[in-house]
């Protein structure tokens, strides 16, 4: 075999292809399929802003081609990305049109400005004048005036104004569609049992003349386009500025980053397209993508709820953990035994209750928590503010460099500091990606620690759709070491020897390398040797080599990788003992769970880290052993159920075909539903043994 690795970018595009499969899947409720189209578009935007921007820098400036993995030069990779994106875009449009046709059979219609009845036209005109027009000012374009700075990812209408009796007299204008202040869709009045929705873009198109009342042009044409900018942050090294000031300045610069893609309506007249691309300095060959009339289709994630119940997923009711009954002390329950939470199957209110109780308990003296991403209106942050108001010593490490959440994190940094919270802005040279918290409580004259270690952020919004795990424990082996990590955050020169937690970049790579080496030793001794590893991404070359080494030694390896994966499975002499699946379903699989056979004494860990160079080398990440046997059984059952999934699991092979797993088709197993049912059964009101 010529190449032992699958390229990261190509693998990522295959992952987004799995999202597109969900939009295509006829068994997915109709309006949920629209949502998956929105997710696909949002993913693709971020991919261009981050990954394609990096590849383009390599093409232009050169770079570490070794880091690409896979048999590509930067130029070849860029061409292959472009080919796949065009192919996926065509498929996307076919799926979108198919969904619209099915919606029409269900009396739901997405109409454009040319399809409006006179009554609907009056409704649209009234909405435009009352809601839209006040927030819009067209930009008139002239040859002499400076071309305006366009916002990253905003949709613009390029307008050509001309006279039908003198077409040589024309002018150009730009109109930004107000995506934040107004919803992207307008629901029109229902008529004869039929429901109608129109894009905000088409509301503006219908009312274009209202925008240019002082001109006597009688022909107005509008064509959508948008640009994506390089999302790399340029951080000033001025030592006189605070890190928050540097980040704020860097965010402003990012809004004017270089253009990595321009998507435009293919119906745009050639003269107008040439004018805009020339002003934007967008090259024809690489940066321009002709598309349909609507852009920013990520907004389909928020398509209006005009359907019937069967057009949506049936909502699951988050389960109450049986060891955390309502209106009882969470800390007392944690003191009795470890508690493992599985989101979104179980209620995130348990985490909020943990923090709220700590905020008001007079015996709690300290609280610490790491922030990577939090909700805009965060109950977690509210609890921490109240804790500070109640005189607790509160320490919050806020990672200001959490990509695309920088502004929200700066906002919360300021809010917390106003309440007297000790806010730490990361660790120099490292991103803090761990999801940990601790509470120090005075009990019988001594300090006792309680801790939370999770695989997902302290974000009650994403906890409703991200599948994650969270361990609550008062086990001093774990809780004390969580507190020690916060001591390191406060005083970076304080180092600790962690005997139970595995912390990157100090120990995580070496620890899991040793775990794999142990399985290799067992295999060579003729004993059962196996591992099941669930991650979001697996692209670290050294860890891939270790898994290849283990496979060659006879270790049975099963991988569940949602996103990018650089392993080429099933190659004789290299990876014949490696099987990989990926699950894309209603919830985003986000947890990291690692199981090692260990000669019959199985070990299971949860972690915040994927196996990527950035997670293992340049981030503070935490992996945590699960000691409680019943909790280990819960996690193992999740892995086993997912490995049996024959509805939403895809096989990851060398050709990236995204074929569905088809084993045991006589017994359909959809792992997310099956695991929810499993948890519902074991978390009935009766207490656990012991």
Shape: globular
Strand percent estimate: 15-25%
Distance between the termini: 54 Å
Overall CATH class of the largest domain: Alpha Beta
Q: List the total number of helices.
A: 19
Rg value:
27 Å
> How many domains make up the coordinates?
4
Total number of beta strands: 27
Largest sheet: 10 strands, mixed
Low-confidence stretches: 235-240, 686-690
Helicity range: 25-40%
CATH superfamily of the largest domain: Endonuclease Chain A
Descriptive report:
The protein is α/β, with parallel strands linked by helices and 690 residues long. The protein has four domains: 1-105, Polyphosphate kinase N-terminal domain (Methane Monooxygenase Hydroxylase, Chain G, domain 1), CATH 1.20.58; 138-186 and 200-314, Polyphosphate kinase middle domain (polyphosphate kinase like), CATH 3.30.1840; 330-497, 2-Layer Sandwich (Endonuclease, Chain A); 503-682, Endonuclease Chain A (Endonuclease, Chain A). The protein has 19 helices and 27 strands. Strands 14, 18, 19, 20, 21, 23, 24, 25, 26 and 27 form a ten-stranded mixed β-sheet that branches. Helix 15 (508-524) packs parallel to helix 16 (541-553). The radius of gyration is 27 Å and the shape is globular.
């Amino acid at each position: 075999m010529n190449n032992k690795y699958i390229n990261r970018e190509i693998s990522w595009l295959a992952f987004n292809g799995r999202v597109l499969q969900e939009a295509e899947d006829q068994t997915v409720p109709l309006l949920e399929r629209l949502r998956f189209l929105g997710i696909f578009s949002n993913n693709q935007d971020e991919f261009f802003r981050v990954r394609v921007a990096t590849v383009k820098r390599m093409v232009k400036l050169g770079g570490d081609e070794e880091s690409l993995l896979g048999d590509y030069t930067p130029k070849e990779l860029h061409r292959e990305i472009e080919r796949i994106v065009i192919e996926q875009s065509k498929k996307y449009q076919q799926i979108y049109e198919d969904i619209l046709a099915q919606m029409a059979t269900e009396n739901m219609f997405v109409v454009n400005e040319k399809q409006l009845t006179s009554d609907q036209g009056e409704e649209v005109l009234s909405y435009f004048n009352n809601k839209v027009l006040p927030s819009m000012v067209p930009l008139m374009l002239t040859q002499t005036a400076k071309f305006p700075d366009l916002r990253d990812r905003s949709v613009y209408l390029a307008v050509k104004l001309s006279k039908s009796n003198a077409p040589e007299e024309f002018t150009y204008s730009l109109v930004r569609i107000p995506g934040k202040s107004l919803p992207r869709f307008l629901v029109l009045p229902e008529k004869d049992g039929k429901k109608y929705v129109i894009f905000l873009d088409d509301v503006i198109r219908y009312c274009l003349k209202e925008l240019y009342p002082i001109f006597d042009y009688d022909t107005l044409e509008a064509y959508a386009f948008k640009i994506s900018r390089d999302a790399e942050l340029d951080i000033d090294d001025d030592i006189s500025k605070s890190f928050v000031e540097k980040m704020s300045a860097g965010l402003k610069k990012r809004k004017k980053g270089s253009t990595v893609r321009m998507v435009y309506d293919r119906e745009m007249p050639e003269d107008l397209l040439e004018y805009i691309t020339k002003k934007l300095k967008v090259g024809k060959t690489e940066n321009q993508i002709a598309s349909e009339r609507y852009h920013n289709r990520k907004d389909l994630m928020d398509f209006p709820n005009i359907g019937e119940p069967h057009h949506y997923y049936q909502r699951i009711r988050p389960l109450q953990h049986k060891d955390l009954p309502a209106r009882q002390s969470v800390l007392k329950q944690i003191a009795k035994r470890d508690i493992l939470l599985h989101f979104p199957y179980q209620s995130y209110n348990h985490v909020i209750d943990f923090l709220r109780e700590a905020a008001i308990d007079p015996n709690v003296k300290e609280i610490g928590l790491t922030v990577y991403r939090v909700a805009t209106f965060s109950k977690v942050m509210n609890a921490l503010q109240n804790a500070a108001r109640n005189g607790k010593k509160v320490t919050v490490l806020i990672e200001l460099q959490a990509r695309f959440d920088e502004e929200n994190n700066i906002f919360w940094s300021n809010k917390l500091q106003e309440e007297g919270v000790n806010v730490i802005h990361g660790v120099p040279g490292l991103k803090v990606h761990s999801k940990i918290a601790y509470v120090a409580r005075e009990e019988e004259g001594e300090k006792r620690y309680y801790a939370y270690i999770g695989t997902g952020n302290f974000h009650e919004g994403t906890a409703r759709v991200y599948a994650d795990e969270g361990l609550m424990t008062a086990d001093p082996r774990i809780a004390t070491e969580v507190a020690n990590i916060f001591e390191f955050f406060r005083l970076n020169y304080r180092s600790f020897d962690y005997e139970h937690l595995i912390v990157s970049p100090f120990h995580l790579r070496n620890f899991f390398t040793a775990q794999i080496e142990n399985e290799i030793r067992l295999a060579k001794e003729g004993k059962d040797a196996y591992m099941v590893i669930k991650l979001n991404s697996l692209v670290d070359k050294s860890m891939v080599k270790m898994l290849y080494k283990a496979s060659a030694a006879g270790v049975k390896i099963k991988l569940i990788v949602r996103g990018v994966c650089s392993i080429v499975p099933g190659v004789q002499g290299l990876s014949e003992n490696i099987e990989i699946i990926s699950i894309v379903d209603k919830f985003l699989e986000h947890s990291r769970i690692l199981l090692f056979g260990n000669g019959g004494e199985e070990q299971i860990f949860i972690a915040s880290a994927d196996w990527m160079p950035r997670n293992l080398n340049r981030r503070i990440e935490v992996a945590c052993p699960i000691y409680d046997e019943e909790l280990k059984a819960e996690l193992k059952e999740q892995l086993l159920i997912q490995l049996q999934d024959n509805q939403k699991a895809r096989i990851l092979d060398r050709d990236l075909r995204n074929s569905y797993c088809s084993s045991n088709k006589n017994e359909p197993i959809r792992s997310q539903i099956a695991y929810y049912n499993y948890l519902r059964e074991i978390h009935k009101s009766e207490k656990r043994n012991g």
